[in-house]
Every structure is written in structure tokens, then in C-alpha cells.
Write a structure and sequence with these properties.
- By secondary structure, the protein is an alpha/beta fold.
- The protein folds into two domains: 29-112, 3-Layer(aba) Sandwich (Rossmann fold); 138-260, Rossmann fold, CATH 3.40.50.720.
- Helix content is 44%, strand content 16%.
- A six-stranded parallel β-sheet has the order 1-11-8-7-5-6, with helices on both faces. Strands 3-2-4 form a three-stranded parallel β-sheet, sandwiched between helices.
- Helix 1 (6-26) runs parallel beside helix 10, helix 2 (42-57) crosses helix 10 (259-280) and helix 6 crosses helix 10 (259-280).
- It starts with a strand and ends with a helix.
- Bound molecules: nicotinamide-adenine-dinucleotide.
């Protein structure tokens, strides 16, 4: 069994990003990322802190707009509009989830597509689905980078994705289809999950349920990618029973240290991409 080491690869990517930042700075451009955080959700606060820290480490400019839970949708949309117009902020992301009184779709659609470094705008989602150049969501993009780094060929592979959300499973499906894999996507209503996972060469799971994927659900020599993040007895675990599945798998991602750090690295990479795009279009 080999570990798909997201921590190590993310460091390598961040070093490359830093070089890109230095180059852009020499041209008088400092890549800038704006993050919008609403409310006091501790997990969201932690993610935002990590994103800001990562930006600063590679020399990017980053600003966090923090708002109380009670902020109105209108105020939020006005802030987005302001950031969209700010030439010093090249990327903009809205940390999800948003409070119930705010229409998430409306908010995500307000982000300028060329600043949409999370890749959640329907314009970018549509382009990704069509196999066109776009901003792809950071978590599935990070999984693709791991496959590339470990020379895992996806062409013709049977891949089972477990979890079909807009931010994980669906964009993962598009990226894999674009790489010519044969993809099976499962969700809460899937009748018999194990029949799908067992026949897959690669299982990718992003659900949010510890131990959802057990050793009897994967075939010998499978590649297993765990996107899940769960807190159990104060410890961070994924959705895969790592101890037992790792005995059968050819490759597996650990949690922590797998897809998590890759997500942040991809956010930085997308911010560079946005900066260059806006530089060209000036
Ligand atoms: P979500 O709740 O939006 O979606 C969960 C998906 O899992 C849905 O499609 C649902 O139908 C499916 N599902 C639920 N129970 C299931 C079951 N028993 N069997 C099969 N499918 C089932 O969640 P999300 O935002 O996509 O996040 C999923 C997980 O990934 C969470 O643990 C989250 O913390 C984690 N996550 C990790 C990263 C990272 O950087 N590694 C990034 C984003 C999300």
C-alpha cells in the first residue's frame, strides 16, 4: 500500500505558487484573495484562518470580510459587488454554509466568474461540465493533482464516487469524465452502495460519515481517496475505515494529510490563475 501524500504534494505546489507570486510582484501585481465569512461556525472560522494563513505564506494579499449571522442578503451582495470591482482582489470566495435566510445560489451567482476561485459559479460549473477551461472547485481539483503526481492513469478506469454534492461529487464527476474515466456516482438514495464500490478500480468518497467505507466494500488493489472530514472523540477522521481498508488498497489518502491540504493548495493555484487572467484581460 502506498500513501497518496497530500501534505507533501501541497507543499511542493505552494512552493511553485510562491515563485509565481514573486514573478507577478516584480511586474507590480500582488495576487489578492478576498474571503467572506458569515456567522460563528467554528469549522468555517478554522477553514478561513487556514486559507488566509496559506495566502500570507506564499506572499499573496488576503482580506477576510467577517459578518454577523444577522447580515442581510442585500448587504452581502453589495460587498460582493464591491470586491468584484476591486482590481487588487483577483479571487473571491464565500465560505459556506451561509445562514438560512440567505439564498446561497444568489450569492454564488453574484461572484464575478473571473474571480470565482472556488469554481462554484454556474458559469464555471457549466464550462467544467462541457470540458472547457474554467475554474474547477478546489477539492476535486486537488484529487486530480494527486492522481497526476502518482502517475495514476484514469483513462478507462472504473471509478466510483460516493457523495454527489455540488462542491465535491459533481465537479469530481466532470473532471474524471473529461479524463476519460468511466464514472459511477452514488448518494444517499443509492440502493446498495457496496455493489458500486466493490467493482471500482478507484473509490472516491466525500460524504461526512466516519467508517462509511469498510474493507469488505473495496476490491483488492483498489485506489481509495477519502475526502470526508469528521471529528470523532476530538480526532479528525475521514469517511474510510483507514486501518482495514489500507490493508487491501494499492494507494490510499490519509485523513488528515490527504485531500485537505490539497484543497488549500488548489485555492492558491486558482488565485494565481485568476490574477493572470485579469492581467491578460486588462
Ligand atoms: P454534503 O452534505 O453537501 O453532501 C454529502 C453527499 O453525500 C450527498 O450527495 C449525499 O447524498 C451523500 N450521502 C450522505 N449519506 C450517504 C450515504 N450513507 N451513502 C452514500 N452517500 C451519502 O457534504 P459536502 O459538502 O459534499 O462534504 C462531504 C464531506 O467532505 C464532509 O465530510 C466535508 O467535511 C468534506 N469536505 C472535505 C473537503 C476537503 O478539503 N477534504 C472539502 C469539502 C468537503
Amino acid at each position: 500500500m502506498r500513501i497518496l501524500d497530500g501534505k507533501k504534494l501541497s507543499e511542493k505546489i505552494k512552493n511553485k505558487v510562491k515563485e509565481e507570486v514573486d514573478k507577478l510582484k516584480k511586474e507590480g501585481i500582488t495576487p489578492g484573495l478576498a474571503v467572506i465569512l458569515v456567522g460563528n461556525d467554528p469549522a468555517s472560522q478554522t477553514y478561513v484562518k487556514m486559507k488566509k494563513g496559506a495566502c500570507e505564506k506564499v506572499g499573496m494579499y488576503s482580506v477576510v470580510h467577517e459578518f454577523p449571522e444577522s447580515i442581510s442578503e442585500k448587504e452581502l451582495l453589495t460587498t460582493i459587488e464591491m470586491i468584484n470591482k476591486n482590481p487588487n482582489l483577483h479571487g473571491l470566495l464565500v465560505q459556506l454554509p451561509l445562514p438560512k435566510h440567505i439564498d446561497t445560489t444568489k450569492v454564488l451567482e453574484a461572484v464575478a466568474p473571473e474571480k470565482d476561485v472556488d469554481g462554484f459559479h454556474p458559469y464555471n460549473m457549466g464550462k467544467l461540465f462541457e470540458g472547457l477551461e474554467s475554474f474547477a472547485p478546489c477539492t476535486p481539483l486537488g484529487v486530480m493533482e494527486l492522481f497526476k503526481e502518482y502517475n495514476i492513469n484514469l483513462k478507462g478506469k472504473d471509478i466510483c464516487i460516493v457523495g454527489a454534492s455540488n462542491i465535491v461529487g459533481k465537479p469530481m464527476l466532470s473532471l474524471l469524465l473529461n479524463a476519460w474515466a468511466t464514472v459511477d456516482i452514488c448518494h444517499i438514495e443509492t440502493k446498495d452502495l457496496a455493489t458500486h464500490t466493490k467493482r471500482a478500480d478507484i473509490v472516491i468518497v466525500g460524504v461526512g460519515k466516519p467508517n462509511l467505507i469498510t474493507a469488505d466494500m473495496v476490491k483488492e488493489g483498489a485506489i481509495v481517496v477519502d475526502i470526508g472530514i469528521n471529528k470523532v472523540d476530538g480526532k479528525i477522521v475521514g469517511d474510510v475505515d483507514f486501518e482495514n481498508v489500507s490493508k487491501k488498497a494499492a494507494y490510499i489518502t490519509p485523513v488528515p494529510g490527504g485531500t485537505g491540504p490539497m484543497t488549500i493548495a488548489m485555492l492558491l493555484k486558482n488565485t494565481i490563475k485568476a490574477t493572470k487572467l485579469q492581467k491578460e484581460n486588462k
